[in-house]
Amino acid sequence: MNIITWMSNYTGQSDFTLVGFFSQSKHPALLAVIIFVIFLMALSGNALLILLIISDTRLHTPMYFFISQLSLMDMMYISVTVPKMLMDQVLGSHKISAAGCGIQMFLYVTLAGSEFFLLAAMSYDRYVAICHPLRYPVLMNRRVCLLLMSLCWFLGSLDGFMFTPVTMTFPFCGSHEIHHFFCEVPAVTKLSCSDTWLYETFMYLCCVLMLLIPVTVISSSYSDLLNLLHQLVQFLALG
Predict the structure, then answer these.
(1) Domain count across the chain
(2) Domain boundaries, position 77
(3) What single string gives the DSSP state of each residue in 35-89?
(4) CATH classification of the domain holding 194
(5) Residue 131 and residue 221: Cα distance in Å, rounded?
(6) Which helix (H) or strand (E) element contains residue 8?
(7) Dihedral over Cα of 78, 207, 114, 184: its sign
(8) Chain centroid to CA 215: how far?
(9) Whole-model pTM?
(10) Measured distance CA(15)–CA(116) in Å, rounded
(11) Is the pLDDT of residue 49 over 90?
C-alpha cells in the first residue's frame, strides 16, 4: 500500500482548508501580484543559472555542480508551495485534499532537509579545495560528488518518509483549517484530536539533530580554513 492510499484511508478523504495570510491583508490582490513576480524572478534566475552551468564546460567542476543542485532544490522548494497559494487566491478556493496535503508536506520536508545537508557538502568541497589542493581532483571526483549528492537527497527524504505518514494518520477533528499557506507538519499536527506531545517532542529533536549535523560540518570547515589563513599570515610576516 503506497503512502497516498495509506493517508487517504486514515483521514477519510477529508479536505483541509489553507487559511494562508491573504485574508489578513488589506490588499490581497496586490500582495498576490508581488509574490507572483518574485516567484517568477526566483524561478527564472535559478533556471538560467542551471542552464549556464550545463552549457559551459568550464563550469563542470564540483563547486558549480553543487551550486546547480542548490538552484534545482530552490526551484522545487518554491514550486511546492507558492503556485498552490496563488491559485487558491485567484480561484477563491482554499481547499486541499488529504493526499495533496501529504504530498506537499513530504516534498517540503524532503527538500528542506536535503538543502541543509547540501550546504554541508558545499562547505566540505571548499575545505578540500583550499586545504588539500593537490589531492582535490581525487578527493572530489565525479563519483564522490554524485555520492554526496545522493546522500543529501537520501537523508532529506528520511524525514519526509518518517514525518508525513505519522502526521497524516492522526485523527483530525474540528474545522480542518490549517493556519498556514501550505501543509506544514506542526500546523497540521495542531488539528489532531489525540495527544501529540510525544510525537512533537521527537519531531523537534530530529529537526535539531538535522540542523546540528550540517552546522557542525560547516563550522569545522571554516575553523580549519581560519587556522590555515592564520598560519599563512604568520608565514608571510616572518618572510
Answers:
(1) 1
(2) 3-238
(3) HHHHHHHHHHHHHHHHHHHHH-GGG-SHHHHHHHHHHHHHHHHHHHHHHHHHHHH
(4) 1.20.1070.10
(5) 10
(6) helix 3-11
(7) negative
(8) 15
(9) 0.82
(10) 31
(11) yes
- Gap between the Cα atoms of 106 and 184, Å rounded: 9
Angle at 207 between CA 82 and CA 116, to 5 degrees: 60
Q: What is the Cα 48 distance to its own chain's centre? A: 20
d(CA 131, CA 228): 7
Q: What is the DSSP letter of 23?
A: G
State the Cα angle at 201 between 195 and 207, rounded to 5°.
135
100: cell is 495533496
Give pLDDT, residue 9.
47
Element (H, E) at 95: strand 95-96
Give me the mean pLDDT over the 105-134 stretch: 90
Element containing residue 18 per DSSP (H, E): strand 16-18
The stretch 51-56 carries a mean pLDDT of 94
* Chain centroid, CA 148 distance in Å: 16
Is residue 105 within 8 Å of 183, Cβ to Cβ? yes
- How many Cα neighbours within 13 Å face the side chain of 62? 24
